[in-house]
Write a structure and sequence with these properties.
Layout lengths: L8 H9 L3 H11 L6 H7 L4 E7 L5 E7 L5 E5 L2 E4 L18 E8 L4 E13 L2 E12 L6 E6 L8 E5 L4 H9 L2 E7 L11 E7 L6 E2 L5 E5 L7 H8 L2 E8 L4 E12 L3 H5 L5 E14 L4 E7 L12
Helix pairs in contact: 1-5
Length: about 325
């Protein structure tokens, strides 16, 4: 990795391939920090949900989330975030969330479309939560976030069911192909003390139907215009292992999967999807459909207004 860049080799590869590296280099060092601005620290403390990206015992990324009453997240200083809950299904998925493990985080407020990201290393872990030290912290724009009214919803633990498979079941396909939102976790090839290495978690949004299941049983989704950092694509370029968390905010159901991703840079499939700059395919290796898993509900209030410039597979 370059000693002078805030990006790792995969991110730089994608930026150079797409001709944006020089422009991004002019503002990225100011945007990507090794601390959280006070605005971010206060923002996280108002959230009932924190999206997490973590590795399992096989090194595969999974995206999931931790939930709690507003205030369950706390920042005692600009380098530290305390999360007073563990990610859902962490034990079932064998997530490695002990001390010294890397973690990717996205704080997202669906009511206002605000979001911020933080990648870090777990300093301390208990049965009730995690203390994370910042590696990289930065803000994100509101693009593609569907606005929702969000409320915590107490679950009945006896009502939770998990169905696991290595192929996409009909239940998983229903969640996937009606989703307007999902979260993706990705990883660098090597994970060490370099703050640019580790796990990234990111949000994706579109019209219901913007993710499809192909005839081969893979997932395919468009990559729309973003901040040009290419954190997710950069990780895919050098490693390819990803995890997806696809929530149904109105039912509490969700699909979780891990697999291998590939980037389709151009061609007729890209051209055929309105708004797509690239496509990503994911070859699933393990899929879990969970009923009654999300202690949160969120009725759709307003889709992202500029979705009118994007398409669906239907």
């Amino acid at each position: 990795m370059s000693d002078t860049s805030v990006f790792h080799d995969g991110e730089l590869f994608v930026q150079n391939k797409l001709g944006v590296a020089n422009d991004v280099a002019k503002f990225a060092p100011r945007a990507i920090r090794n601390f959280m601005p006070d605005q971010h620290r206060l923002f996280y403390q108002m959230l009932p949900m924190m999206i997490t990206g973590a590795l399992d015992d096989q090194g595969r990324p999974w995206a999931t989330a931790a939930f709690g009453q507003r205030g369950f997240i706390h920042s005692p200083d600009e380098h530290t975030l305390q999360i007073g809950a563990l990610p859902v299904l962490h034990d079932y998925l064998n997530l490695q969330i002990g001390a010294k493990a890397k973690l990717g985080l996205v704080g997202i407020e669906l009511e206002t479309r605000r979001r911020n990201r933080m990648n870090g290393i777990i300093d301390y872990a208990t049965d009730h939560g995690l203390t994370v030290t910042v590696d990289q912290s930065y803000g994100n724009c509101p693009q593609y976030i569907q606005r929702r009214d969000v409320n915590l919803h107490m679950q009945n633990p006896d009502g939770q069911t998990l169905i696991q498979s290595d192929t996409i079941t009909s239940g998983a396909q229903e969640i996937i192909e009606t989703a307007d939102t999902f979260f993706i976790a990705s990883r660098t090839a090597d994970i060490d003390s370099d703050p640019r290495s580790g796990i990234d978690a990111s949000h994706r949004g579109g019209h219901p139907g913007f993710v499809k299941v192909t005839e081969e049983g893979h997932l395919m989704f468009p990559d729309f215009s973003g901040n040009r950092f290419f954190n997710t694509l950069g990780n895919i370029a050098v490693d390819g292992r990803v995890g997806l968390f696809i929530p149904e905010f109105n039912t509490g159901r969700a699909a979780f999967l891990t697999g291998r991703a590939e980037i389709i840079w151009d061609g007729p499939k890209v051209d055929a999807f309105m708004g797509a700059e690239r496509l990503v395919t994911v070859h699933p290796e393990c899929i879990v459909v969970a009923e009654n898993v999300l202690p949160i509900r969120g009725d759709l209030v307003e889709p992202w207004p500029l979705l009118k410039n994007t398409g669906t597979w239907v």
